Amino acid sequence: MSDITKYEHNVGKRKRIRLRNLVTWFNTTQEDGEPSFEAPPGPMIEKKYIVKHGFDGVEIHGANGYLIEQFMKDQVNDRKDQYGGTLENRCRFALEIVEAVAKEIGSQRVGIRLSPFTDFMESSDSNPEALGLYMANALNKYNILYLHVIGPRWSESESPQSLLPMRKAFKATFVASGGYDRNGGNEAVAEDEADLVAFGRLFLANPDLPRRFELDAGWNRYDRSTFYTQDPVVGYTDYPFLDVHA
Ligand SMILES: Cc1cc2nc3c(=O)[nH]c(=O)nc-3n(C[C@H](O)[C@H](O)[C@H](O)COP(=O)(O)O)c2cc1C
Q1: Helix, strand, coil: what percent of the chain each, to 5?
Q2: Closest residue by CA, ligand 1 atom 21
Q3: Which superfamily does CATH assign the domain made up of 3-198 to?
Q4: Rounded mean pLDDT of 221-244?
Q5: CA atoms in the 13 A half-sphere facing the CB of 38
Q6: Whether the CB of 178 sits within 6 Å of ligand 1
Q7: Distance 201 CA to ligand 1 centre (A)
Q8: pLDDT, tens digit (0-9, with 9 covering 90-100), for 67-97
């Protein structure tokens, strides 16, 4: 087991690899034709690598404007071949990746993260509801473990859009994220809007977030000015733990 997975297991987390920058040398505006990798995805998704390093599975990163999402969103994909144009064509690349990873490591070790409603890196779509619903339905075919979706509320603005149609369409575990706190997360699960809720910024600002939730002890506010900084400590590992003796 590698040091990183040992650490993650020790702190009680399950470990996944995110396939984000796997194929960054390929972009959606290149000449049409069969997407071909200049280098193979390589050992990162070989079963022996996953098992050897103690990973529980792979979360395919199909969100936030990275490569896979660039194929899915109609405002950035201008291909004219079987990977562009229709919804089916734009989602083909993502689904082929799901199929390939599931085949390699087993479908029950695979999850995927999507963000149809976000527009990071100019990746937006003219009909995010239809895109999300199409993917939720299409993913059922691959028997994967979970679908993790960043909802429309991530930016803290009110939105009439909802994850519910995706939640209802997807047959396995549905993880919602984006703009949840302790109460919001509990409500979403109680209302059957999701099986699980994931937290981003609150986790960043609270290294002991599960403990704080358990105790209903409140949490540190995150500091936006230190998001995405180059400093390895400030904004990443300098938020205080709960002082249970205070
Ligand atoms: C500093 C920072 C770094 C992030 N890095 C990533 C990333 O690498 N990949 C990703 O998909 N999302 C990333 N996110 C987004 C979060 O995973 C999450 O989707 C987002 O913060 C919304 O959830 P929240 O409302 O619980 O914070 C990042 C967010 C922050 C604040």
Answers
A1: 40, 10, 50
A2: 200
A3: Aldolase class I (3.20.20.70)
A4: 93
A5: 7
A6: yes
A7: 7
A8: 999 999 999 999 999 999 999 999 999 999 9
